[in-house]
Amino acid sequence: MGLIRKTLSVGTLGLVSFRSKKEKLRRAERSQRAAETSLLGEHQARIAAEARITAAEKRVKRASADAAHAGKRLQQSKRRSRRHRRGETMGEVLSGVEPLVRSGVETARSAGTDAAERSRKAGRRARKAAKRSLARAKVAASSAKEAAAPRAERIATRAGEVIDHLTPDS
Q: Which of 57, 62, 73, 156 has an alpha carbon within 20 to 30 A of 116's alpha carbon?
């Protein structure tokens, strides 16, 4: 793209800009699209994380309900004097299972929290990148416009001179 412009830029040690206005604008738009895509990905990650959190909370609720039900059954079995031995055995089993259920609940909660935090961080990074990209694009476009204005004025002046020179005086 613009091999003559790039050669001229190197040959004049930077007096002629290396990238044209169109090229700067294309690059800025490309980076803006990338930032928007990143932001969309962050949004989708956040939605997925929230879905995982909801599922983890349901598992927690179900495990808590199961633990409460098991505790209730344990109390009922302790009340029955005939089955005292069986109640003790059941109590031992349930007391062994309870720490496993609690650890599973804590693991699910921490996984959901971690996923939500990661999605928030990714969203912040994507927003910052989009803002930076937009700012760079605006600066590049305005500098290209300012750089092109004097040259356009010179060309218009020169064109006026040529037209004056070519038109016969009457």
A: 62
Who contacts 61 (Cβ-Cβ below 8 Å, separation ≥6)?
none
Enter the tokens of residue 77: 């079995």
**Would you kindly state where each structural domain of the chain is located, as residue ranges?**
19-134
Is residue 1 within 8 Å of residue 117, measured between CB atoms? Answer: no
Report yes or no on whether pTM surpasses 0.85. Answer: no
- Report yes or no: 52 and 112 within 8 Å, Cβ to Cβ: yes
* pLDDT digit string, tens, across residues 26-82: 989 999 999 899 889 888 988 988 888 888 888 888 888 888 888 788 777 777 655
Contact predicate 96/47, CB 8 Å: no
Q: What is the 3-state secondary structure (H, E, C) of 41-84?
A: HHHHHHHHHHHHHHHHHHHHHHHHHHHHHHHHHHHHHHHCCCCH
Residues 6+ apart with CB under 8 A from 53: 112, 113, 115, 116
Tens digits of residue pLDDT in 7-31? 887 878 877 777 788 888 998 999 9
Site of tokens 């590049």: 140
How far CA 167 is from CA of 36, 156, 160, 170, in Å, comes to 54, 16, 11, 9
